Amino acid sequence: QVQLVESGGGLVQAGGSLRLSCAASGRTISSYHMGWFRQAPGKEREFVAGISWRDGQTYYSDPVKGRFTISRENGKNLVSLRMNSLQSEDTAVYYCARKRGWRTDPSPGTNDYDSWGQGTQVTVSS
What are the angstrom distances between the C-alpha of 17 and each of 54, 57, 59, 89? Predict the structure, then answer.
């Protein structure tokens, strides 16, 4: 079983940047698709970004495309999310997750991920 721990959240002004990290332990994540999700108060958890195990191809939701960058360092069992030009709408708890299944195709579906971190709060003040 893999354990995922997010860090790097905090309070930032609109237009600012943050870098979230997700450290995995217990199992290697190199052969798994990884994703970042977020959940704002009163809303459902939504897909933010994903990165393929196969070739590092990245995927983003429309609201964050061009502002967020997901990356991975398999040797360190680490996944990161660089967030630029933050807006108040980005305020949420951000979760790192590992997709179910070894060497499977990417997916934005929340139910396709079976390992989750505890989340890190990102608050953007306007």
Answer: 28, 23, 20, 14
User: What percent of the chain lies above the pLDDT cut of 90?
Assistant: 90
Q: Beta strand pairing status for 10-13 and 46-51? A: unpaired
Residue 44 in 3-state DSSP? coil
Written as six digits, the tokens of 54 are 């196969």
Q: How many helices (H) and strands (E) does the chain have?
A: 0, 11
Q: How far is CA 115 from the centre of its chain?
A: 12
For residue 102, what pLDDT is reported? Answer: 86
Q: 108 near 70, Cβ under 8 Å? A: no
